[in-house]
Design goal:
heterodimer, A: mainly beta, B: 10 strands
Chain lengths: 118, 107
């Protein structure tokens, strides 16, 4: 189930960015899509997930109020929008699907680099 | 801050065995999974469940759990195993969380 993400973005501080993740080979409704980010030289950080089977998305507390995860099932594309960007939001953003039976992220997108400049 | 703790770095001689550990109270209750991340690449799942490998992962990778500690073992390390390794599970709020990461150097 390849996941193809949108290209790199450069944004000004305070702006918003919207990253897309297109699924092929499966339909989005069959998948539990999560978002993970990684700042340069740092570890992986779970941001949240959107699972249409369970209704509303769940976000990590750190991103509450700034992140919105949505899905367009007509195009099998998931989106992650982060607002009020800060320099510390400069990171690689990944979408990843969750293998529900084992709670493991089995497929990852290639990543989208978001750079926040002042 | 992560609730899953890993050693920052380990080294292993080519062909030898290395064990990477991940500690956290949530490991008593939830599955742990392990990811390999080579420089400039997306993470790759290497171990999930009790000790399962995706089909593309060599059998020199294995996993185990004991109480609040999970381990990833590479038996007969190869040069291509040099990478960062992360564990993942759930935190006290049942949200997903990643370990702090371990850099493996193959000498």
């Amino acid at each position: 189930v390849p996941l193809v993400q949108s290209g790199a973005e450069v944004k000004m501080r305070g702006a918003s960015v919207k990253v897309s993740c297109k699924v092929s080979g499966y339909t989005l409704t069959e998948l539990a899509m999560h978002w993970v980010r990684q700042a340069p030289g740092k570890g992986l950080e779970w941001m949240g997930r959107f699972d249409p089977k369970h209704g509303e998305p769940i976000y990590a507390q750190k991103f509450q109020g700034r992140v919105t995860m949505t899905e367009d099932t007509s195009t099998d594309t998931a989106y992650m929008e982060l607002s009020s960007l800060r320099s510390e939001d400069t990171a690689m953003y990944y979408c990843a699907t969750l293998l529900l039976a084992y709670d493991a992220f089995d497929i990852w997108g290639q990543g989208t680099m978001v750079t926040v400049s002042s | 801050s992560s609730e899953l703790t890993q050693d920052p770095a380990v080294s292993v001689a080519l062909g030898q065995t290395v064990r990477i550990t991940c500690q956290g109270d949530s490991l008593r209750s939830y599955y742990v999974s392990w990811y390999q991340q080579r420089p400039g690449q997306a993470p790759v799942l290497v171990i999930f469940g009790k000790n399962n490998r995706p089909s593309a992962i060599p059998d020199r990778f294995s996993g185990s759990n004991s109480g609040n500690t999970a381990s990833l073992t590479i038996t007969g390390a190869q040069a291509e195993d040099e990478a960062d390794y992360y564990c993942s599970s759930r935190d006290s709020s049942s949200n997903h969380v990643f370990g702090t990461g371990t850099k493996v150097t193959v000498l």
